[in-house]
Amino acid sequence: MILEKIKEKFLDDVYETFEFRGDLVAVVNKDIVRELAQYLKTDPVLDFNILMDLTAVDYLWQERKPRFDVVYHLYSLSQNHRVRIKAGVDEKDLTIDSLVSIWPVADWFEREVWDMFGIKFKGHPNLKRILMYEEFKGHPLRKDYPYNKRQPLVGPQN
Amino acid sequence: MKPENQAASPGFFTSKLNDMVGWARKYSLFQYPFVTACCGMEYMSVACAHYDIDRFGAGLPRFSPRQSDVLMVVGTISHKLAPVLKQIYDQMCDPKWVVAFGVCTCTGGFYDNYATVMGIDTIIPVDVYIPGCPPRPENVLDGLMKLQEKIQRQPA
Amino acid sequence: MTTAAASQKIRRHTMMLNMGPSHPAMHGIIRIILGLDGERVESADIAIGYLHRAFEKSAEQSGYLQVIPYTDRLNYVSPLINNMGYSMAVEKLFGMKPTERCEYIRVIMSELSRISDHLTCIGASAMELGAFTAFLYMMKAREYLYQGIEMVTGARLTISYIRPGGVKADLPPEFEPHIQKAIAETRNVLKECHQLLTRNRIFVDRLKEVGVISKEDALAYGITGPFLRSTGIDYDVRKNCPYSVYDRFNFDIPVGSTGDNYDRYLCRMEEMEQSMRIVEQAFRDIPEGNLMVDTEGREIPAAMMVDLAKMGETEGFVELDVNLDPTLSGGTRQYFNSVEADEKRAVLPPKEDTYGNIEGLMQHFKLIMFGHGIQPPAGEVYQAVEGGNGELGFFVVSDGTGRPYRVRVRPPCFPIMAALPLMLKGGYLADVVATFGSVNMIGGELDR
Q1: Average pLDDT, chain C
Q2: Inside any domain, residue B136
Q3: Residue B110 domain boundaries
Q4: Which domains occur in chain A, in start order?
Q5: What is residue B128's predicted lDDT score, i.e. its pLDDT?
C-alpha cells in the first residue's frame, strides 16, 4: 500500500520498490527526496512523522553506479508502519537535498553522513564534522579509507 | 615502617624518611577518574559498597587535576580526546601517577582502527597497567595495591 | 539618573563557558559550549565524538560472529539488548527463528539489562545532584543483577551471550533462585530510593519543570524510549512492534505528562518495576528444556576426548557427555536443542560434536575461520529493539560473503543529544547537569 502510493505519486522517479523479509524499500531519484519526504510526512494515510534513521552505504566494492546510497528509515506512530527510502548519490555529484526543514533531527544525522562519507547536503545550516575532528582528512567510512590509518593530534604517528 | 627499630625507647620508633613519606602517600591517594567508556561501569562497582576502594585509602575522587595525584584513565581514548588527556596530565602536580584501567588504555585492545589511540603510553607515562575488558573489580584492587607498593619504594 | 537609565547603561554581553569533555557530570566525553547571560543559558552547542571507536568500520572488517563483542560495547550499561538487536538482525537476514526457550532466555536477560541500565542512569544522575546515598543503594542492586548475569554468561559486563541463532549456553539451575532474590533486593532498593528521592524537596525542585520538551518537538527530533514516553506518547517497540515473545507478557508502558526531568525519573523507576514483572512472568512460562545434568552418563574431560579421537578411538563418543571447562558448560548437547536454532549455517555445533567427531569439528571451524564464517544471503534488513534509551535499530547490509558489508546502528541517545540545546535554552546553568543526567547519555552508543 505504502509503496504503491509512492509509485503513483512520483511515477518515473521511483526506480524500484520491493519487500525483503518484511521491510518495505523504495529506491528513488535523489532529486525528489525533499518533495517525497514532505509528502510522506503530511499525507494523512501514510503519516510518517518520525525520521528514525538516516545513513549511507558505500558500494565501492560492488562497483555499482551510483557509488553511494543515502538510506532513510521512516516510522509512522499513528499507522505503526515503516518504510526505507534509498537514494543513489554518485561520486561525480556528491550532493543531496537536506531534510532539516522537515525533521530537525536530520541535522545531526546529515552531519554524521557528511563526516563519514563526504556527501554534502544542500540547504543544511551547519554542515561540519560531528564525530571526527576538524583536522581529520578524508571520510573514514568510505570503503577506500584504510581502516587503521590514523591521524593523531598528539603522540607518535602510527 | 620498620617495626624492629621500635625496641629502643617505648613510645617512639625510628624509620627512614623515604619509608615514612611513601607510607603516607600510598594510603592517601586522591584519584582523578578520567572516565570515558565501558570500564567506567566497573569503576563504579569498585567505588561502591560491594568492593569498596575506600578500604585501600583511595576512596576520594577529586575532579580537579590540581588536587589529585593518581590519574585513572578509565576507558578508550580516541584521537579526538587525546589532547585533552595530555592537558589533564600536564595540569597535575608532582608527585603524580597514572593508572591505565582496561585494555583499551593499555594497548588499544581490539579497537585497532583509525579512531583510537593504541595505548595511552604513547601520550603520557603509565605506572600501572590493569588489563581486562573491562577488568573485574578484584583485578582493579590488585592493580591499586601494586601501585601502592610502587609508591612505597619510590624516593621522596 | 533614573534606574531605567542606569540599567540601560549596564552592558549586556554573553559569556562563553566550556563544559567538558573532562567534567564529572559530562561523563568525560561530551563538550557543551554554553552562552550565558548571567546564570541563564542563552545558547548551547554540543560537541560529541570523543568516544568514536569506529564500530561501523570495525564491523565491516570482521565476520558476522566477530561483530558481537563490538556490540557489547555500544551501550555498555545494557549490553544484552545490543547483542539481541544485532543477532535478530542477522537472523532476519537468514529468515530463521530461534527456539521458544531461547526467546524466553533472551527476554529475561534483556530485561535484567534494562533494569541495570535504569539503575545506573538514575543512580548517576541522582549522585550528580548530590544524592550520593541513592547512588550507593542502586549500585548495590545492580551488583546482584551482575552476579546473576555472570552466572549465565561468565562475564559481568561485556558478555557476548546472545548469538545469531540462539544463545551461548542454557541457564544454569541456580540462576532462577538467584534472580528471584536479586529482584526482591532490587524492589527493596527501589522502595528505599522512592522514599529518599521521589518526594525529596531538593530533588523535586531540581527536576520539576526543568528540561521540558514538548510532544511535537520530541517527535520531530525522533526521540524514543523513556524520554519520549515522559512527554505522554506511549511508543515502545516492545508493544508497538513486538519482537521475540514480548507480545505474550502482560506489562504496562508508563507515560508521563509534562516531559520534564521529574517525569523521566518517574518513568524510569516504573519501567524497572515493569521489567521485573516481565522477568517473573518469563520464569513462570519458560518452556522446559532439559536443564538437569545427567549424572548417569559417563563424563570424560574434553582434552582427553581429543586425545582419544586422535588415536581413532571414537566408539561411543556420539552419546557421551563431555566434561567441559566452566566457560563452555551449557553448550553441550543436552541443552543444545532447547537454546539453539536448527540452522547449520549459523549455529555452532554442540560441544560433544566439536570435540568428538570430524563433522562437528569441521562445522565449528567453518563458522569460526576467517574467510568462511556465517554467510547470510545478500540483502539488507533493519531490526529495531527497545534499548535502555529507546529504539535501538540495526541496519545490516549483506553481500552474501562472510563479512557484513555495512552495519549501521541507530543509536537511541543520538537524537536526544541533538535535541538537548532545546531543553537547555532558557534554563539555569545548574540545570544543565540535571537535564544532561536525565538523557542517560551512553558514549559507546552515541559516538559508536
Answers
A1: 82
A2: yes
A3: 29-150
A4: 2-92 (3.30.460.80)
A5: 92
Q: Same domain for C191 and C98? A: yes
Domain membership of residue C68 (yes or no) is yes
Statement to judge: residues C426 and C323 lie in one domain: no
Model pLDDT, residue B2:
52
Residue C298 has a pLDDT of 40
Task: Tell me the pTM.
Answer: 0.85
CB B147 within 8 A of CB B99: yes
| Confidence tier at C335 by pLDDT (50, 70, 90) | low
Q: Indicate whether C22 and C67 sit together in one domain.
A: no
Number of domains in chain C: 3
Q: Is B90 within a domain?
A: yes
CA dist., res. C96 & res. C94, Å (int): 5
Domain assignment present for residue B8? The answer is no
Q: Indicate if the pLDDT at residue B100 is higher than 70.
A: yes
In this predicted structure, the answer to whether residue C299 has a pLDDT above a threshold of 80 is no
Residue B113 is part of a domain; what is its CATH number? 3.40.50.12280
Q: CA dihedral in degrees (C66, C68, C74, C80; nearest 10)?
A: -160
pLDDT exceeds cutoff 60 at C293: no
List residues of A whose CB lies inside 8 A of any C CB.
Answer: 20-23, 25, 49-53, 55, 57-58, 61-62, 71, 73, 77, 80, 82, 84, 103-105, 107-109, 116, 129-133, 140-141, 147
Q: Is residue C293 part of a domain?
A: no
Q: What is the ipTM of this complex?
A: 0.92
**Could you give the C-alpha distances from C356 to A127, B97, C13, C367, in angstroms and in order?**
58, 51, 77, 17
C382 and C305 within one domain: no
**Domain interval for residue C424:** 55-287+375-447
Measured between CA atoms, the residue of chain A closest to residue C241 is A80
| Across A118-140, average pLDDT | 89
Dihedral sign for Cα C416, C422, C427, C430, please.
positive
User: HSE (CB half, 13 Å, CA atoms) of A101?
Assistant: 10
Predicted confidence (pLDDT) at residue C294 exceeds the cutoff of 50: no
The pLDDT confidence band at residue A56, using thresholds 50, 70 and 90, is very high
- Residue B96 domain flag: yes
Find the CB nearest A50 among C48, C58, C222. C222
Give residue C102's pLDDT band: very low, low, confident or very high (50, 70, 90). Answer: confident
Q: What share of chain A is helix, strand, coil (3-state, %, to 5)?
A: 25, 30, 45
Nearest to C52 by CA among A117, A149, B54, B76: B76
CB contact residues (below 8 A), chain B span 15-74, against chain C: 34-38, 40-42, 44-45, 48-50, 61, 63
> Within its chain, how far is the Cα of C57 from the centroid?
21
Overall domain count for chain B? 1
